[in-house]
Structures are given as C-alpha cells and as structure tokens.
Amino acid sequence: MPVYLNEAYERRVREGRRTTVQDLREVMMEGVVQRVRLKVMTVTAVMGGLLPIMWTTGPDADMMKRIAAPMIGGMADSTILTLIFLPILYAMWRRVQLCCVIPSPVS
Questions:
Q1: Could you report the average pLDDT of every consecutive run of 10 residues in the chain (107 residues)?
Q2: Phi, psi (deg, nearest 5) at residue 43
Q3: CB burial string 48-64: b at 16+ within 10 A, e below
C-alpha cells in the first residue's frame, strides 16, 4: 500500500501540482483505489479455499480447522490493516511533512 500511495503522491509532485493538505485526500483515494481490487481478489481467493476446510467433518478435520482458522483471521486482519490503517498512517505522515515544510525525497 505505501508504494501505491507514494506513486500517487510523487506523480502529483512531478506534474507540478502543489500538494496541500486538502489535496492529500485525493492522493490517498487515488492510491487506495489502485490497490483495493488486488487485495480483495487475493483475500477472496484465499478465504474461498479456506472456508470449506472450516466446514469439513471428516477425519483430521479438527487439525485442519486449527490451521485454517488463524489464516482466515489473518487475511481479514491484513485487509483491514492494508485498506484502512496504513492509508491513515500515511496521510498523518504526509500531513506532518506538509505542515512542517519538510522537503519530500523526490528524485
């Protein structure tokens, strides 16, 4: 996610558009939208494979359920982390840069 957010931010800077705190929301939406589809597709595929394991009742099903349950929880947690918390932290970091006039490392 930070790669997509950085690319969106740096593209705006390269185009010569001055980035303000108000423009930061646009940058965030642009970066997040690029990543949402990829993340949702991955999570759907992994959970689609793990959910049948959670519902099985055959031999060794208890052992497989103990393996699948944390993986499903991890996928849900990583989705929330990637799509909500990382963009918020990135926005806070960029906001501090913009308010304190720290030059961004654009090459």
A1: 86 79 82 89 94 87 89 93 90 82 58
A2: -65, -40
A3: eebeeeeeeeeeeeeee
If one counts every other C-beta atom within 10 angstroms of the C-beta of residue 87, the result is 20
What are the boundaries of each domain within the chain? Answer: 2-100
Name the residue type at position 106: V
> How far is residue 13's CA from residue 8's CA, in Å, rounded to a whole number?
9
Structure tokens at 49: 């494979």
79's tokens: 């989705």
Question: Is residue 47 within 8 Å of 72, Cβ to Cβ?
Answer: yes
For the beta carbon of residue 94, count every other beta carbon within 10 angstroms: 20
**Is the distance from CB of 5 to CB of 27 less than 8 angstroms?**
yes
Rounded to two decimals, what is the model's pTM? 0.71
Phi-psi sector, 86: left (phi>0), alpha (psi -120 to 50), beta: alpha
User: Quick one: pLDDT at residue 42?
Assistant: 94
